[in-house]
């Protein structure tokens, strides 16, 4: 049984925290809007009135917050994790963040005698609720090992991304990059098919019947074939945020990513044309526009 | 039983022709270097001494030749298919060709009272030998229908790409484009992981365990993770040929394909650095070079 | 005085041939549509009824034809330059052609005991008429030297691009590439300015007042600032032809040109949106469209 | 005579402040390392011991600092310009900064009853010392008008970029973008020429003799032709900083800039290969590397 704090009880945080609790760990939760903690409280979690108190006596504090700005505030603001985590305690960062931010916060924790483990997750809230996430974990090996029971409670598999926390960040961003570009390339391929007057469904069938029989192509190939961009899983605007995290990581490491550029430009174009709140598969719509194939 | 001629008995042609013969059709084969027809002859095919005679009395002549130049010669040269196919006979083009060439040859056949059906295949020679190819067929519906028993003999599934032959070409090229760019994006993603000192195997595991559990990622993700570029399935130089067919099709239809450009530039760089005869996954090696991650 | 033949009396060919004649050389001209030769005939040129006769007794035959297809026909067709040029005579190719074509034709002439010199020109017909063209010449040094009086008659300056004919082609294409991409980058820069609600004229003034005080920026910066795309100097469709010659040359030499790709994609998009016959500065209009800044 | 404060007395700041003083204005200067102010003090400027005192009784405070981080600190830190500028006073931002930063600081000043004018300059320190800079000015018209005598003292010409401060930022970034991409395209063009074995000097002559007879091409075309990358005017690493400011501005305004991407990727590659402190024309060296043309 690990003494766990959890900051950030949104849809994803809630599902993960619930798995931690179900794994038999002692859970103390904090959320900026406290109503969201009610369900976890009913299930046996304690609710802390501040981040500082959510750190009190904890061995591990997990965070799942929206973006780098929120994470920096949670850690670095007065009364944040850096001020409040006990010496030797571990901050497990589960959200999708930038490499520069993870690097900065890992250093801040180290200076304060604490440890940062990056453990971004693969999967959406429903997958999290079922305990079937993938967890990509990196950080000092002892700390990662200490957290393993938590990762086991959360996910079906943990991928060990090495002893430096930002390694897990890099893998998570690489995976998102693969997905974003797969969607972009599908968008381009569908435009090619449409320009030759072939039904999109034909290309879809060829893809998922053969080399591309995988969730990324099944899900997004279908959305694009059916032009179902209003059925939103993840918005174009959030896609751009991810693309910028990826390009930021690439920039810091001096890695040119030409395919990411092509993808990012379609995201920008889609948002410029008013599709920011559509599903991020709308890059395919923007590609169609760029090809003179608008509806 | 269909009276079939077959021109182009290389590794792929031989496997396909063998399936046609096994399907109970009457087969007359021609190859520029006649030795390659011996096995089919032993299995019951007749061997024609010229393309013209391979067309004699045929309802369908199938071609599987290396490139657009060879195909144009087979059709348009004196004594070629245009001169020799009986009126109403069908030329089934099975190779991977450019849209402009297919368009030109379809018009030439139409003028000569013949029919062109494009039926490029999905899969390598071993898949062909097992009768498990995918066939993407397009052309005048009657003609496609007439050929269906042949497609059934050859493959496990036929995808109907519409009434215009070049539609099948577009789908085949779109599929190759998806594959080439998937490899390119993997190459970029692996460079990102390596730049952050994460073992390539971690990214591989994440990919194929989740969103990318598909042959394209299994096969090429492994080659790249293991830097096994000397184990050649398809060369970089042939990859460039494909990329140019794809970009040619896009050009003709006025479809910008930015991801194809990124991929093509890595193919060019790989060849410029002497990797033309390596496996076309060597775009990942070129990406590593561009990122200062050379071995 | 050199005995000169000239094939291809369009606007450009006519202006150049006129300078040759004015330089005191003996001129024999041929054009597919003979009417266009009348003016030159009146000025003292002889008119040949066929390409073969335009080669008769010539030391040099110059060609200025529209594209690679036309040039190959003029040289390789029966009765063309290869068949008809006297041994040792020089074919001066003045049009803008592809490297592969120039290479092929140089070999064909060499085999026939003739010499090909590539001498593409810099400037438009009015510049040609004034004898102020730049000439980029390459080929066997003796042959280039022999032609120098002709180049002096035609232009204000000859640039020596080395002993291999295709070197001049490469330089001419590189210059067109610089121009095309300068226009593309201007288009992008103007979109950035417009997105921040700054008058295009401000960017124009900054450019041509400082680092970019050159004809390319003066001319095209003005067209874009004033959105004067219907005042056509060179069409978008011809721009795409040039872009493909450039990318073809790059492909053959294994040189990735990422900026050319960006430019080509905007040309394609412009044509896809119906701007093929507008001035090729319409890439800036297409860029505006891609940025959601359409009028 | 205007009462002017000046923060940031580096090479550029010093040259500009000197012109202000020479224009007859009352000058109070501050620099973090006070030694750099000695020369201005000798010429008649007063030296302030803090930013706060450099704002005391000033009508205008000009800043010329290295980057966005420094500018934000100068304005927003305790005792910074926001705290210290008198009501109605004007902060003239002369450095090259990001749009987001200028926007944020303009809002901060407005809230404090002060005014921000963006007035980035065109030209290097020697040009500044000669009073020949270009000044691109934007902000509330009254404020810009009030500053005009200062701009006249500093530069030979002021470009009016409208009533919103960030408009001047956009124009300055657009100009840098044009330059960076011109260098990138030259790099690509030189690689093409070299791949065809033509002397770089030939391309240089063609460029600057004709369409590209402008400082940008004269200066950088020469550096690239002579591979003189160790003669550093502006480093590759600073070039990347600029590219990221440009792409950041484009991102914020939803403008895809494909040419900027191509340029940025070459900057990254150059830095990855150890050329970060070479002249930023080293993108041409990186392009040569990508083309297999390394020395």
Q: What does this protein structure show overall?
A:
Four copies of one chain form a homotetramer. With 295 residues, the first copy, chain A, is α/β, with parallel strands linked by helices. Chain A folds into two domains: 3-163, Rossmann fold; 170-290, N-(1-d-carboxylethyl)-l-norvaline Dehydrogenase, domain 2. Helix content of chain A is 54%, strand content 13%. Chain A has helices spanning 11-22, 38-42, 51-55, 68-76, 81-84, 99-111, 125-129, 141-154, 165-195, 200-209, 215-225, 236-252, 258-272, 283-290, and strands at 3-7, 26-30, 46-47, 60-63, 90-93, 115-118, 121-122, 133-137, 155-160. In chain A, the strands form two sheets. In chain A, strands 3-2-1-4-5-6 form a six-stranded parallel β-sheet, sandwiched between helices. In chain A, helix 8 (141-154) links the parallel strand 8 and strand 9. Chain A is elongated. The first copy, chain A, starts with a strand and ends in a 5-residue tail after the last helix. Chains A and B meet through strand 9, helix 9, helix 10, helix 11 and helix 12 of A and strand 9, helix 9, helix 10, helix 11 and helix 12 of B.
The radius of gyration computed from the alpha-carbon positions of chain A, rounded to a whole number of angstroms, is: 20 Å
Adjacency order of strands in the biggest sheet of chain A: 3-2-1-4-5-6
Helix content of chain A: 40-55%
CA distance, first residue to last residue of chain A? 57 Å
CATH topology of the largest domain in chain A: Rossmann fold
What summary fits the major beta sheet of chain A? 6 strands, parallel
Quaternary organization = homotetramer
CATH class of the largest domain in chain A: Alpha Beta
What's the number of extended β-strand segments of chain A?
9
Mean pLDDT of chain A: 97
Any guess at the CATH architecture of the largest domain in chain A? Answer: 3-Layer(aba) Sandwich
Portion of residues in beta strands of chain A equals 5-15%
Derived structural class of chain A: alpha/beta
CATH superfamily of the largest domain in chain A: NAD(P)-binding Rossmann-like Domain
Please tally the helical runs of chain A, counting DSSP H or I stretches of 4 or more residues: 14
State the order of secondary-structure elements of chain A, H for helix, E for strand: EHEHEHEHHEHEEHEHEHHHHHH
How many individual domains of chain A?
A: 2
Give start-end ranges of low-pLDDT stretches of chain A. Answer: none
The backbone outline of chain A, from C-alpha atoms, is elongated
The biggest chain-chain interface is:
A-B, 73 and 73 residues
């Amino acid at each position: 049984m690990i003494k766990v704090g959890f900051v950030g009880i949104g849809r994803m945080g809630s599902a993960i925290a619930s798995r931690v609790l179900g794994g038999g760990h002692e859970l103390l939760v904090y959320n900026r809007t406290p109503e969201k903690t009610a369900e976890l409280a009913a299930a046996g979690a304690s609710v802390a009135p501040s981040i500082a108190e959510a750190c009190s006596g904890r061995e591990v504090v997990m965070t799942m917050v929206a973006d780098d700005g929120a994470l920096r505030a949670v850690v670095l603001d007065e009364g944040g994790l850096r001020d409040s985590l006990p010496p030797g305690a571990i901050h497990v960062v589960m959200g999708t963040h930038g490499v520069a931010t993870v690097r900065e916060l890992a250093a801040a924790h180290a200076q304060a005698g604490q440890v940062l483990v990056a453990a971004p997750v693969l999967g959406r809230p429903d997958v999290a609720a079922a305990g079937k996430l993938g967890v990509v974990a990196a950080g000092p090996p002892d700390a990662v090992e200490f957290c393993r029971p938590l990762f086991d409670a959360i996910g079906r598999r943990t991928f060990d991304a090495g002893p430096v926390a930002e390694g897990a960040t890099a893998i998570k961003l690489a995976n998102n990059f693969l997905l974003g570009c797969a969607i972009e390339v599908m968008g381009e391929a569908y435009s090619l098919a449409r320009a030759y007057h072939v039904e999109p469904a034909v290309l879809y069938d060829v893809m998922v019947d053969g080399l591309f029989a995988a969730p990324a192509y099944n899900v997004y190939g279908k959305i694009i074939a059916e032009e179902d961009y209003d059925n939103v899983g993840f918005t174009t605007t959030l896609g751009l945020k991810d693309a910028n995290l990826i390009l930021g990581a690439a920039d810091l490491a001096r890695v040119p990513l030409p395919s990411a550029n092509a993808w990012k430009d379609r995201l920008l174009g889609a948002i410029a044309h008013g599709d920011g709140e559509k599903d991020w598969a709308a890059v395919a719509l923007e590609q169609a526009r760029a090809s003179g194939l608008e509806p």
